[in-house]
Amino acid sequence: MQPVIECVPNFSEGRDRAVIDAIAAAIRSVKGVNLLDVDPGADTHRTVVTFVGAPEAVVEAAFQAIRCASERIDMRNHRGAHPRMGATDVCPLIPIQGISLEECTVLAGRLGERVARELAIPVYLYEAAARHEERRNLATIRSGEYEGLQSKLSDPAWTPDFPAPYNARSGATVIGVREFLIAYNVNLNTTDRRLAHDIALSIRETGRIRRNDKGEIVKRPDGTSEREPGLLSHVKAVGWYIEEYRQAQVSINLTNFRSTPPHAVYDAVRLEAEKRGLLVTGSELVGLCPLEALRMAGRHYLLRQGRSSGVSDEELIHTAVRSLGLDQLGPFDPMQKIVEYRLHPPAGPLASLSTRAFANLTASDAPAPGGGSVSGLVGALGASLVAMVANLTANGMRTHERRASGGEEAFLSLVKLATDAQRLKDSLLAAIDRDTDAFNAMMEANRTRTSTPEELENKKRQVRIATEGAIRVPLDILEAARDIAKLAIQVVACGNPNARSDAGVAGALAQAAAKGACYNVWINLKALDDPARVEQIRATTETLLAEVTELAASVEKEMSDLGAGQTAVR
Q1: Residues 498 and 569 sit within 8 Å (Cβ to Cβ)
Q2: Residue 504, Cβ neighbours under 10 Å: how many?
Q3: Of the candidates 343, 375, 390, which is a domain's last residue?
Q4: For the chain, give me the number of helices (H) and strands (E)?
């Protein structure tokens, strides 16, 4: 897995498009970087930029962006709703795949040292990169903001991690390493910033300063203020008024969305708003969010409706968008707002074809898509049928059935069946394109011309790698087919009797996908020049195929009464 990191710098400019475009161009100029999102805010006077790529490339792009911002933004003229202390206010590095927080911390240190040395901008390190425990929290570092920076720099306790003289034009920059942060705003039907901020104090982890009945701050023996903890962990929040929207918002940073997801924040704000006579009218995602955050919201709201959450990602996302009101302030495009979709489309070109177009392309004289891709499609359809029977059964359960002894457990078992089937369906749909890509890679490796012994050895190595890749995809299909057959047996036993035929078809399709996958493994084995490896793979496929065949036979046995005068009704 190639290492990939994300960088989400925040620049203190949200109004001058020429400045914003120049910063974006500086990022795009670095090879190996993919600029995913540029999100300016006029009232906050701030732009959040998101880009990803190989670690070294991302660090270089971050430096070039910070340089560009220092040349084009003058903090002496800056006023905005969002707290800030520099032209490039904050620049976090976020591990996405194949790299650790510790490795990113080394990169953050290198970037910070270069910014201070070459651009004469003081740099503080925060979160996982912090070298002082009291500097882990960005809000603590940023206290006093730009206006208090000159005084802060004269305090020995606040000597920057990478010092530089006070820079009135550029301020200071905070560089760090953190897990994925979701910037999320909840909209209120009020223009009163104070009410929004009061809600923020109630929900954020740090809560609010405790006051007595006279409104006086309650002090501890050491003189520090006591605090009332907030309702939600891993939440930072403030309240503000956005003129562009003509409404107040609770502006939130979610630092661990798996512990406290957006839907939990939305529901908490809604309850707090009702206590104050307010209504929540929707919400807003600033920048990108992980797919799982919207999946979690979709599952949450479907289960609250008493419906199965074992549905497709598309339906989960739709449910999340409508339930959270993410489209209140403008259209919500999942392809633009979900980080995984910006990195990789949810479906490849073959899987995105209509059924007719896929069949026509397969029936042409093109060598691909072939049996491997078709096996992936067949397996995906089998998984889809399992999910359909499980969802149909779960959603057909009456409330009184759910309340009966074991009823809720049976419902949740069906939901899990459907969810597992959806996961297998998605992996097999991806295999449709993976198989064709692997075939093309193998053909390309074999077409390589050689004229020296070194080139010949390199070609052999590339052919071997490509062949292993062409074998790996059908092996994955074979393993998924086994899992589908297992789910088909379960859904036959607990599914709606009127849908037993569909479960039976799922078992038959699992067996067909398994056989097709085996054939594709076997035909590629002849290109391997390692007899021991060939025997190992052949033994694995034969064992898996025998397992799928046995499972499919069990499903077929359950179907025998359908042909004995009984009628399956849909």
Answers
A1: yes
A2: 23
A3: 343
A4: 18, 13
Question: Which residues on neighbouring strands pair with residue 284, listed in sequence order?
Answer: 185
C-alpha span between 547 and 482 (Å, rounded): 7
Mark whether 141 and 242 lie in a shared domain: no
Examine residue 349 and state whether it is found in any structural domain, yes or no: no
Residue 314 and residue 367 share a domain: no
Q: Residue 247 belongs to a domain with what CATH number?
A: 3.30.70.670
476 shares a domain with 555: yes
Is-contact 201 230, C-beta < 8 A?
A: yes
- Cα–Cα distance measured from residue 52 to residue 58, given in angstroms and rounded to the nearest whole number: 7
**CATH number for the domain harbouring residue 89:** 3.30.990.10
Distances (CA, A) of 69 to 81, 88, 102, 406: 19, 6, 27, 61
Asked whether the beta carbons of 274 and 164 are under 8 A apart, the reply is no
Nearest-5° angle of CA 121, CA 127, CA 131?
70
Output 66 or 530, whichever has higher pLDDT.
66
The pTM of the full predicted model, rounded to 2 decimals, is 0.81
Run of H or E including 182: strand 182-188
Average pLDDT value for the chain = 93
Quick: pLDDT tens for 370-406: 999 999 999 999 999 999 999 999 999 877 677 776 7
Q: State pLDDT tens for residues 431-461.
A: 999 999 999 999 999 899 989 999 898 998 9
Euclidean distance between CA atoms 259 and 247, whole angstroms: 29
Residue 189 has pLDDT above 80, yes or no: yes
Domain boundary among 118, 146, 177: 177
Return d(Cα 97, Cα 9) in angstroms, integer: 19
- Looking at residue 429, its amino acid is L
- Segments forming the whole domain that contains residue 201: 182-343
- Residues with active-site annotation: 82, 435
β-strand partners of 236: 253
Q: Within 13 Å, how many C-alpha atoms sit on residue 524's CB side?
A: 30
CA distances from 495 to 219, 392, 508 (A): 62, 8, 17
Give the length of the chain. Answer: 570
Q: Above pLDDT 90, what percent of the chain?
A: 79
Q: What are phi and psi of 217, to 5 degrees?
A: -70, 130
